[in-house]
Amino acid sequence: MGLPIKTTSTLTALFVPGYLNSLCDFMSSDTSRLPLNDEELNEGNYIFVTYESMLADIAMHSYLEYGSYDGALYGTKLDTIRQIHADGLIAVIDVEPQVASIYCRQSYY
């Protein structure tokens, strides 16, 4: 059984939001799809990029993980994780279990 789509929202609800937010940053994934509406642009759940720029970054190994769905690309960019850590926070990421095991065994810094 998989986790719900809004996993980070679920995690947020499990903790005291003020305390958790002072320690963590819930990652926004990159996507090449267009925003569904103006509100989605402001929510911060996704970083909207072009398909071509995402393909170029994939070729440069800039993503921890990536995939495609319904003609659009989605992924977790390593620079986003690094920036969160540089800000002194813990990056909370939602990746497939296979990716997590690879990430734990290899250095992506």
Lateral strand order in the biggest sheet? 3-2-5-4
Taken together, the total number of domains comes to 1
CATH topology description: Rossmann fold
Question: Can you give the mean pLDDT?
Answer: 77
Approximately what portion of the residues adopt beta-strand conformation?
15-25%
What is the C-level CATH assignment? Alpha Beta
Principal-axes geometry comes out as: globular
Detail the poorly predicted runs. Answer: 1-5
Count the DSSP helices. Answer: 6
Major sheet characteristics: 4 strands, mixed
DSSP summary, beta strand count = 6
Helix content: 40-55%
Structural class: alpha/beta
Report the CATH superfamily: P-loop containing nucleotide triphosphate hydrolases
Radius of gyration (Å): 14 Å
Euclidean distance between termini CA atoms: 32 Å
Q: In the CATH classification, which architecture applies?
A: 3-Layer(aba) Sandwich
- H/E element string? HHEEHEHEEHEH
